[in-house]
Amino acid sequence: MNSALIPNLDLRQENVALPLRIDNPNASAVPGRHTHSLVILDNRELDRQCLAQCMAAQKADLQILAFGSIEEWKQKRDEYPPLSAILLNVGGKKIDEPTVSEQIRKLSSEFASTPLIVLADSDDFGQIVRALEYGAKGFIPASVSVSVCMELIALSVAGGIFVPASALFAMRHLLDSSNSTARPLSGIFTDRQVEVVEALRRGKANKIIAYELNLRESTVKVHVRNIMKKVKATNRTEVVFKLNDLFLSGSSAASSLC
């Protein structure tokens, strides 16, 4: 292509230093019309630009800003309206990846009064839980529409916490599974022993178990010995291994011990 045919074409333009600032293209230009701003953080420039343009068309009173990092926004923060929310787009990355988890922790700590919402390709229950544990105030799967995404951001700004419906279904499934595996144990152990079993499976020491269950440490040791006998284990490591097998295999394994 002959660049002479295209005036004002700058082939040396850099594509990293300039953040994306987008106003609603359907609204008339009114000075000072934006009272707050939303910052999209995504190190993939094309992705953040496309998302910002779509969001700007949905929200007339919110200035949409897209940056590769929070440091880029800080350099020009005085040029923009007050920050309402931060949308961190992690794409296909896992929440528990060190770089992602650290970024969520750092942002949620530094901007404690500003909701941090995670946007991700996945709606895996474990990933959602971890994001909330690290400080996120919401988790939006990329499967929702742009308009729904904006409504969910508004919910977080208002003080709510959003998680996908799939997470609730997964939680219900876990609760149902937990109940179905706990019932067989009730035929093997006493109620107090079941509590000790739960603590053992979490790797807790006798002293901690005694404190949490309001028991003497010597009493906990007696319970542990009785539990070991019932599952035919010779040491603490083996008892935990066999208890985990019980929870995984359910009633069939439990009945074999009776």
What top-tier CATH class of the largest domain fits best?
Alpha Beta
Secondary structure: number of strands:
6
Class by alpha and beta content: alpha/beta
* N-end to C-end Cα span: 82 Å
Give the total of domains.
2
Sheet with most strands:
6 strands, mixed
In short:
InterPro entries: CheY-like_superfamily, EvgA-like, Sig_transdc_resp-reg_C-effctor, Sig_transdc_resp-reg_receiver, Tscrpt_reg_LuxR_C. It comes from Rhizobium leguminosarum. The protein is an alpha/beta fold.
How do the strands and helices of this protein lay out in sequence?
Layout: E1 20-22, E2 36-41, H1 45-56, E3 62-67, H2 70-75, E4 83-91, H3 98-110, E5 116-120, H4 125-133, E6 138-141, H5 146-157, H6 165-186, H7 191-201, H8 206-213, H9 217-230, H10 236-249, H11 251-257
Parallel strand pairs: 2-3, 2-4, 4-5, 5-6
Antiparallel strand pairs: 1-3
Helix pairs in contact: 6-10, 7-9, 8-9
Descriptive overview:
The protein is of the alpha/beta class. It has two domains: 36-166, Response regulator (Rossmann fold, 3-Layer(aba) Sandwich), CATH 3.40.50.2300; 184-247, Winged helix-like DNA-binding domain superfamily/Winged helix DNA-binding domain (Arc Repressor Mutant, subunit A, Orthogonal Bundle), CATH 1.10.10. The protein is built from eleven helices and six strands. The chain has helices spanning 45-56, 70-75, 98-110, 125-133, 146-157, 165-186, 191-201, 206-213, 217-230, 236-249, 251-257, and strands at residues 20-22, 36-41, 62-67, 83-91, 116-120, 138-141. A six-stranded mixed β-sheet has the order 1-3-2-4-5-6, sandwiched between helices. Strand 5, helix 4 (125-133) and strand 6 (138-141) form a beta-alpha-beta unit. Helix 6 (165-186) packs across helix 10, helix 7 packs across helix 9 and helix 8 (206-213) crosses helix 9 (217-230). The protein is elongated, with a radius of gyration of 27 Å. Mean pLDDT is 78; it is low at 1-18, 23-32 and 251-256.
